[in-house]
Amino acid sequence: MKLGFIGLGAMGRPMAEHLLRAGHELAVWGRRPQSMAPLVEAGAVAYASPAELAQQAEIVFTMVTAGEDVARLALGQDGLIHGLAAGAIHVDMSTIAPETSRDIAVRLAGKGMGMLDAPVSGGPVGAQNATLSIMVGGSAADLDRVRPLFELLGKTIVHVGGQGAGQVAKACNQMVMVAAIAASAEALCLAAAEGVDPARVHAALAAGSAASRVLDVFGARMVKRDFAAGVEARLHHKDFGILLDEAHRLGCPLPIAAQVGQQLNALMGMGWGRMDAAVLLRVAEASCRRN
Amino acid sequence: MKLGFIGLGAMGRPMAEHLLRAGHELAVWGRRPQSMAPLVEAGAVAYASPAELAQQAEIVFTMVTAGEDVARLALGQDGLIHGLAAGAIHVDMSTIAPETSRDIAVRLAGKGMGMLDAPVSGGPVGAQNATLSIMVGGSAADLDRVRPLFELLGKTIVHVGGQGAGQVAKACNQMVMVAAIAASAEALCLAAAEGVDPARVHAALAAGSAASRVLDVFGARMVKRDFAAGVEARLHHKDFGILLDEAHRLGCPLPIAAQVGQQLNALMGMGWGRMDAAVLLRVAEASCRRN
């Protein structure tokens, strides 16, 4: 198929490579030409604007950080809306506010264009190994057309509901995941304050009712004090801004998430945003008694 | 071996039955004679006080709810300390404050008696199926003697550290587990407020980075709105009292656990203490917009 891809960073680049390797024609665009170079070398074609790229593609993927960037790419002066044919689909795999995603979908629908919100969990490693979990909002018909491409990128594809529902699921995922990281950090901090070896506590917890992927992955990083980034914690901070804004907009109190958001604020205040979220252990330790 | 068991409730009774079935001589004591009846029918012998029971046993297990009850059983007027021989071991499998456990251990050690704190995770189902996770604090020598008995009760036995360390690990386990339940409740509540099907969100999360035993077990109960007790939530409320007291004593701030503790306070305030902790969903919903 004729595809487009915008946003060739730590996540987008390996995803675009999977699509290209599967034999699809791939159009790319980037603000920085050097971000496109490896894809172009591998056979992708670079275009001068999102609109020009969109003219070449039946399905265009975006994978960027901020909601305003997705809106600009889709609806701006040189945006996808000015190049996509009726019947083409914009698949946004970024993590942005459900409201922003729904707004873009409505504008595109006005010109007969489809849209799916399809944020992912799994991080750069999941992108490289094509093992992402993809949470999809939008119509079943659009998803049917895009599904074979999603299958090149991830191992689990869940159709959560209508437009924006993928973003809602992603917000829920981040709430649960980062709350688990923050709670694990507090637990290991309490263990240390009690004079008990955090590695032994981690081993005890991994076997019981508290067992989780977070405890396996982030708990182990905390025990080894390995705070190098898997996913940069500043992205979790961004995600919590989105979900706490949603809570405010809806009148839906999220007391645990609010507290986790404050821990992420502290993490950013300490200048650790480019480290892994396991560094929440250091946030907890910063004000906790040492033995 | 000659064993004793005190505390024949939802947890203790199946555990005592496993010990008896393995061929050990079992002495039992209970405040309420009827709690002992099924064990006595199966071959255990009832005694008139903890002290009298202790005279018959090399190793005595206790499995009760409150720390003050463990202290009274161990050190009170008719307590174990007045019956155990030097070299005998008190194995407390209750979930109590590390400090209380250490105090009992010191008093027993003064008479040459051993003590292990060995709280468990897994609930009544784990007790029945002998699949508990057992978190042990105390000396390696005492654990070596008790280990064959623990192997009749659980499938994972972790020696966390010295006396009290098992209780510290259990406190950490409860922090991480109940925080995950509370965060899952908030997430499903946000999904509903967004007009998205919580069952689909649960399915999406179960496949990704937020995956956990809590999400599998408690998330599924929330989706089915099945709030009948696995473990009664009032016990989690009790555990949070312990761990927040520890945090206060040590000067160790636990902001996430503190907020979870408030949610458990709300749960108790609503009169739901005998339900499963999955009812934290209803606590979250109580103040959240409905669609």
Question: Would you summarize the structure shown here?
Answer:
The structure is a homodimer of 291-residue chains. Chain A has 291 residues and is an alpha/beta fold.
Description:
2 copies of one chain form a homodimer. Chain A is of the alpha/beta class. Chain A has 2 domains: 2-161, NAD(P)-binding Rossmann-like Domain (Rossmann fold, 3-Layer(aba) Sandwich); 169-290, N-(1-d-carboxylethyl)-l-norvaline Dehydrogenase, domain 2. Helix content of chain A is 53%, strand content 14%. The first copy, chain A, has a 6-stranded parallel β-sheet with strand order 3-2-1-4-5-6, with helices on both faces. The first copy, chain A, has a 3-stranded mixed β-sheet with strand order 7-8-9. In chain A, strand 8, helix 7 and strand 9 (154-161) form a beta-alpha-beta unit. The radius of gyration of chain A is 20 Å and the shape is elongated. Chain A starts with a strand and ends in a 5-residue tail after the last helix. The model of chain A has no long low-confidence stretch (mean pLDDT 96). Chains A and B meet through strand 9, helix 8, helix 9, helix 10 and helix 11 of A and strand 9, helix 8, helix 9, helix 10 and helix 11 of B.
